[in-house]
Amino acid sequence: MTSRTVDTTQELATFLRTRRERLDPRDFGLPTRRQARRTPGLRREEVAELAGVSIDYVVRLEQGRGLRPSANVVEALARALRLVPDERAYLFNLAGRRPPEAGRPATAAAPPLAGLVADLSPLPAMLMNHRYDILAWNSEMARLLLDFDTLPPVQRNSMWLCLVHPKTRAFYADRERVVREGIAHLRAAWAAHPEDQALIDLIAEFTGRDEEFARLWAEGDVKANSRGEKLMRHPEAGNISLLFEVLMPLQDPDQLLVIYRPADDDSRSALDRLFAR
Q1: Would residue 118 count as lying in a domain?
Q2: Which residue of 112, 204, 224, 230 is surrounded by the most CB atoms within 10 Å?
Q3: How many H-runs (helices) and E-runs (strands) does the chain carry?
């Protein structure tokens, strides 16, 4: 029976011990004489040597004596214990640390996700990172918004398009709400990725060049808006009401899958006409 709350110190101790004990010394070129090994797996001193820490430190961690290893130590232990990605992430969570790559946003679409974006046709779909950089899109999304291939990569950012691009600035009927929701997401992303200098520079650029952004940013709203409805004023198809869904893949949590669906029959017909051209 499990307790109602997780004692992360004890769980960290148990996790390190069980992962050490499941390792085969032969995989490390270590002796396997039974008389010399009274417990399965690697010895604590062997793990300490592999991780570059003291034996006493490993002992205290496995005894749950309240240590909080640094991110560098957690990474070294993960390598020494040959943890798979999910186990490594679990170890970082137990230690209350962020993995080194947490501050590095995706700059390219994961190939399976890029394929999924294409397969979602005829629904408009695109893939973004936490900065709202657009990493992949299908032809329907390009037809609905604009041809992203015509933009330099630095401008393929949905907030930049909403604030700066002449075609998309007036695209949304309720523009302030769309901008407000986008800013609330960026503020949450800013707190979650404090090392992301590109995001910091992007926010500074928007604040300095757009009064509306500066005003709304100063209000301090924080929200990850993953579902809703947008009314678009399309220059060719007229008004289109779209439902949107934002999904976060488990294996690529820094990438956001955005899918649009028509909210009513008139909007469905408008999309059909637009995509048929």
Answers
A1: yes
A2: 230
A3: 12, 5
pLDDT tens-digit profile, the chain (277 residues): 444 556 888 889 999 999 999 998 888 877 665 545 566 789 999 999 999 999 999 999 999 887 889 989 999 999 999 998 888 888 988 888 877 766 567 788 889 999 999 999 999 999 999 899 999 999 999 999 999 999 998 899 999 998 888 888 888 888 888 888 899 888 888 887 777 888 899 999 999 988 989 998 888 888 777 889 999 999 888 999 999 999 988 878 788 999 999 999 999 999 999 998 7
pTM above 0.70, yes or no: yes
Domain carrying residue 35: 8-103
Verify that 14 and 136 share a domain, yes or no.
no
Q: In this structure, are 137 and 97 located in the same domain?
A: no
Is residue 146 located within the same domain as residue 211?
yes
Helix 8-21 with 85-95: angle, nearest 10 deg: 150
SS3 label, residue 64: coil
Residue 117 identity:
V
